[in-house]
Specification:
363 residues, mainly alpha, 3-stranded antiparallel beta sheet, 6 strands, globular
């Protein structure tokens, strides 16, 4: 075993929670759980988070080696197939993270290739990206930061055309969503007649927006299929994003709104943004350069804070292994201090990477 004992123990807790959740939800997909009882709100199709549930099941299967767990992970991944042709850039989140940990599973591999080809076909040359899409309502021609992570490695599975689309998709998101001073503008609507304009939802200062863009940039640094110029730009963007916003950079677990701390009230925390950030920093910790060690140290500090201060222990009225204080949508007052399935996923990936059970660069 490589890595600290606390990380291995915490990973056991999180994956124990995964096993319990599987028994509770059956063939449905968990979305967020009540912080007091641990009961899940579920969806039938998984929405944009379904891939994270499949990924957690694959992590459990890797941990136990049990055929029952592997079969459950494979069955869940197969249920993601209906998202292959959905009009949404969140196919990167759904179909990359839902298949990347599946090792040699033939169904997952075929699903990833089909999804890659569908996303490559959906690439819009005028927009310069795979559109955010209409699957969840609203305008179709958006560029949003949560459409960036997972999309580049997914597109690469489509061959040279997919690789070119992946590079353009990354470049377009950096063009629009990252200002030179490090401020992240999470969403843009692009009209062919009037050009791009910033949207108010998600808001500027959304901490998960920074985390998603950091993850996409950090991931590209390790992708040989990404052209050198784009990799260099992503590396520079990742360093800028990793510094965090002014005055909030010292927080290991950010507020849902990066500007919230200025009023003194702070607003809800978002542990899921912290977990995403930790995985991105672990990726940067494998990159060449003088800051690699610092990135890894900060990732470890974030993961330790999450496990010490926000992860439930067994006993009492709720299960152990729940990552609490995730904020799904503060503006709509939806699940603002809850366990979130994607927060669990990125925490589990980070802990698995620390203990040598996952190479974070494979994600």
């Amino acid at each position: 075993m490589i890595g600290p004992r606390w990380a291995d123990a915490a990973l056991d807790d999180v994956l124990g929670r995964v096993a319990g959740t599987r028994a509770e939800v059956g063939e449905r997909f968990p979305l967020h759980a009540d912080p007091d009882t641990g009961r899940w709100v579920t969806t039938a199709r998984g929405a944009w988070t379904g891939g994270f549930w499949a990924g957690l099941l694959w992590l459990l299967a890797r941990r136990t080696g049990a055929e029952e767990d592997r079969a459950a992970a494979a069955a869940c991944t197969a249920r993601l197939a209906e998202w292959v042709d959905a009009d949404t850039a969140t196919r990167g989140l759904i179909l990359w993270y839902g298949t990347a940990l599946a090792a040699d599973d033939a169904v997952a591999r075929e699903l990833r290739i089909r999804a890659a080809r569908a996303c490559a076909a959906a690439f819009d040359p005028e927009l310069g990206a795979v559109p955010w899409g209409s699957a969840f309502g609203g305008p179709r021609t958006l560029v949003r930061v949560d459409g960036a992570p997972g999309m580049a490695p997914l597109l690469a599975a489509a061959g040279p055309a997919g690789e070119r689309a992946a590079a353009a998709h990354l470049e377009r998101h950096l063009d629009l969503c990252l200002r030179g001073d490090g401020v992240v503008l999470p969403a843009w609507q692009v009209e062919r007649e009037t050009g791009p304009r910033v949207r108010e939802d998600p808001p500027v200062g959304w901490s998960r927006g920074r985390a998603w863009l950091l993850l996409a940039a950090a991931d590209a640094v390790h992708r040989p299929t990404v052209p050198p110029g784009t990799r260099q730009r992503c590396a520079a963007a990742a360093e800028l994003l990793a510094r965090g916003p002014t005055r909030a950079a010292a927080r290991l677990v950010p507020y849902d709104r990066e500007s919230g701390h200025e009023s003194g009230t702070g607003g809800p925390l978002d542990t899921s943004a912290a977990a995403i950030t930790a995985v991105a920093l672990l990726k940067l910790g494998h990159a060449p350069g003088p800051l690699a060690g610092r990135h890894r140290e900060r990732a470890v500090a974030i993961l330790r804070r999450l496990t010490d201060a926000h992860l439930t222990r067994a006993g009492g009225n709720r299960p152990g292994g729940m990552l609490l204080d995730g904020c799904h949508d503060a503006g709509r007052d939806v699940a603002t201090r809850h366990e979130l399935v994607w927060g669990d996923f990125f925490l589990a990936v980070g802990l698995a990477a620390l203990t040598g059970r996952v190479d974070v660069r494979e994600l």
